[in-house]
């Protein structure tokens, strides 16, 4: 079975107290796919805990994949945009 980064994030989030949120980081990043291909993104996401500290291993590029593994519609995820310091829904 291949390693699934999003499953690892779900496991970490499941053990977090309420108050975690996702922040959009408007910096380019790359991700390597399982087939070895590298894909570039113009932004990424990072999950922060209730104390506003980044949670280790919780950096990702695909919000829809996180939404799917958490079984939560992406519109309901607590997203904080760096340009707009309020939650977006």
Give the end-to-end Cα distance, rounded to a whole number of Å: 34 Å
- Compressed to H and E, one letter per element, the order equals HEEEEEHEE
- Output mean pLDDT: 87
Count of DSSP H/I helices: 2
Strand content: 35-45%
What structural class is derived from the secondary structure elements?
Answer: alpha+beta
Tally of distinct domains: 1
C-alpha Rg, in Å? 13 Å
Strand order of the largest sheet: 5-4-1-6-7
Count of β-strands: 7
Instruction: Please tell me what the overall shape is.
Output: globular
How much helical structure, as a percent, in the residues? 10-25%
Unreliable residue runs: 83-89
Q: Biggest sheet, open or closed, and with what strands and sense?
A: 5 strands, mixed
Describe this structure in words.
This protein has one domain (5-88). It contains two helices and seven strands, in the order αβββββαββ. The chain has helices at 5-14, 63-70; strands at 21-25, 29-32, 38-41, 44-48, 54-60, 79-81, 84-88. The strands form two sheets. It has a five-stranded mixed β-sheet. Strands 2-3 form a two-stranded antiparallel sheet. α1 (5-14) packs across α2.
């Amino acid at each position: 079975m291949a390693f699934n980064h999003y499953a690892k994030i779900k496991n970490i989030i499941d053990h977090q107290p309420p108050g975690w949120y996702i922040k959009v980081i408007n910096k380019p990043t790359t991700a390597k796919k399982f087939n070895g291909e590298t894909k570039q993104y113009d932004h990424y996401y990072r999950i922060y805990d209730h104390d506003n500290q980044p949670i280790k291993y919780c950096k990702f590029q695909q919000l829809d994949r996180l939404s799917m593994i958490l079984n939560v519609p992406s519109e309901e995820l607590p997203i904080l945009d760096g340009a707009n310091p309020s939650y977006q829904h």
